[in-house]
Specification:
Blueprint: H1 2-25, H2 29-41, E1 49-53, H3 59-65, E2 70-75, H4 78-87, E3 93-97, E4 110-116, H5 125-135, E5 136-147, H6 154-171, H7 176-188, H8 192-202, E6 205-212, E7 217-223
Parallel strand pairs: 1-2, 1-4, 2-3, 4-5
Antiparallel strand pairs: 5-7, 6-7
Bound molecules: S-adenosylmethionine (SAM).
S-adenosylmethionine binds next to helix 1, helix 3 and strand 2.
């Protein structure tokens, strides 16, 4: 698929500077967002096995394994996954290069699936959600962390930062186009209501959505019963 190929190439190109720019451009807020992702996983038995889809350089997996869980990380980009492999303990983190559209796992393998800032990059969101649903055990949960468009006056300031300031700062260290793409992908991502509808259409239940950082980031929690 050409689109997936382009996305893979883009993340391969920015992999080396990804963590540094993530912390810088989010003003360190990404640490708080990942902490919320971890909180959203509870209650969860310590023996639970978690799949972190679009694991990237493993920053979300890192927070999860610190609490004693085992995480299987999947990502399309070999360069991103190689960085995650270097960063995280081999005892608790199992990285795999693969696509969210065709996950190499049997049905009902995982107690939870997390996906941080990944699903927005998957052009066929419904296909990715079907895969997440398939690999979850009954009673399991999906926790999806994703950007969103804020409303009101803050939207004007936020749009200006994301469209004009962020790509120019990123250009000093990495590929400007990738960070221009970031803003476009946020604008094209479904609204929280539309995303909730997609989750329900997939078969998920008990949807909970939590807004963070003035509505620029959301945690979507959904169960498979
Ligand atoms: C913005 S990064 C997020 C990485 C990490 N989850 C984090 O929070 O820092 C998006 C990741 O999604 C991965 N990705 C994009 N499309 C994918 C797909 N179809 N299947 C698996 N991973 C994908 C990219 O390679 C990239 O590492």
């Amino acid at each position: 698929m050409q689109e997936s190929h382009n996305i893979k190439a883009m993340f391969d190109n920015i992999a080396n500077k990804y963590d540094f720019l993530n912390h810088l451009l989010s003003l360190g807020l990404d640490f708080c967002w990942r902490k919320e992702l971890l909180n959203a996983l509870y209650p969860l038995d310590i023996k639970s096995i978690i799949c972190d889809l679009a694991t990237g350089t493993g920053d979300s997996a890192k927070v999860i394994i610190k609490k004693g869980f085992k995480v299987v990380g999947v990502d399309l980009s070999l360069k991103m996954i190689k960085i995650s492999k270097k960063k995280l303990s081999k005892k608790s983190f199992f990285p795999l290069c693969g696509s969210g559209y065709q996950l190499p796992f049997k049905d009902e393998t995982f107690d939870a699936v997390t996906c941080a800032f990944g699903i927005r990059n998957m052009h066929s969101i419904d296909k990715a959600l079907i895969e997440i649903f398939r690999i979850l055990k009954k009673g399991g949960k999906a926790v999806i962390l994703e950007f969103s468009l804020p409303s009101g006056a803050f939207k004007i300031f936020y749009s200006f930062y994301m469209k004009y300031i962020l790509p120019n700062i990123a250009a000093l260290f990495s590929e400007k186009e990738a960070y221009e793409y970031l803003w476009n992908s946020i604008c094209n991502f479904p609204s929280t209501d539309e995303f909730s509808d997609l989750l329900i259409k997939t078969g998920f239940m008990g949807i909970e959505q939590k807004s963070m950082s003035f509505g620029t980031v959301y945690i979507h929690k959904a169960y498979k019963f």
